[in-house]
Amino acid sequence: MAQAKALMDIHPEVAEAIKAGRPVVALESTIITHGMPWPENDAMAGKVEAIIREEGAVPATIAVIKGRLKIGLSEQERKELAQTKGAMKLSRADLAFALAEGRDGGTTVAATMIAAAWAGIKVFATGGIGGVHKGAETSFDISADLPELARTPVIVVSAGPKAILDGAKTLEVLETNGVPVVCYQSDVVPAFWSRQSPLPAPLRLDEPQAIARFHAMRQELELGGGMLVANPVPEKDEIPADEMAGFISQAQDDAVRLKISGKEVTPYLLGRLLEITGGRSLATNIALVENNARLAAKIAAGF
Ligand code: PSU
Ligand code: MN
Which Enzyme Commission number(s) are listed (predicted)? Predict the structure, then answer.
């Protein structure tokens, strides 16, 4: 851990903000390398950084470039990463591998949380976290993002479990592991592309400052771990749940038929949904990430 700092390149603007206690929002990069196609991925990443600045916070996109753990990318670095072929998808299991081997990689929610905590960043915005996949009772496919939320003290702002996941099982695993799920201004857990799901909100808060206060209280009690904030996609951008369900089962059937497994499942389903919905799922995905970035900046300012 003492040496971790030597492996990181903290962008000077980010380092200064952290030191001064000004609001900083971490951003992941698997969404850039594996979650969206070029050039939409870079356009989204640039826009999200701009939104965080608009809200008075400093964005810190986290990624691994040639074996260096980057906390905050220059525009040039971001653009190159967005076009890198063969970038790894890095989680807790393989983050150190990429650093040891000098590789390039996008950091998942889990790896981004680890890096953010090392750097001293409390809040992180993304689109969707990984969770318990549908059919996990046979595949055992549960994202490493869930145990990470239980051990690393970072607030993750998402749009709720993606409807490609089993939302109820995802909430159960979070509860078992002592991870608070806070629905923002909603009595139900939002389902990524849709504002509604049948799942009641485990906890609800309506003010960004209240979320910061809750996290600070958990820290004070030394409870460990982070929390998941579920922020519903804006109404004008949502795809209603019943409409989305048909597209998802089609994508899932294709994944099973093609025997897609392991790390490839999430990127495959996202790419296939983009095709099936004729780009609509991507437009919604971009809108919800922007919405989450805005809320994350407000939470970061609430400390
Ligand atoms: N959800 C998205 N886009 C993404 C991901 C999730 O809408 O790009 C990425 C995130 O980086 C998340 C990872 O941490 O997928 C989860 O992958 P897995 O299910 O393999 O753990
Ligand atoms: Mn998985």
Answer: 4.2.1.70
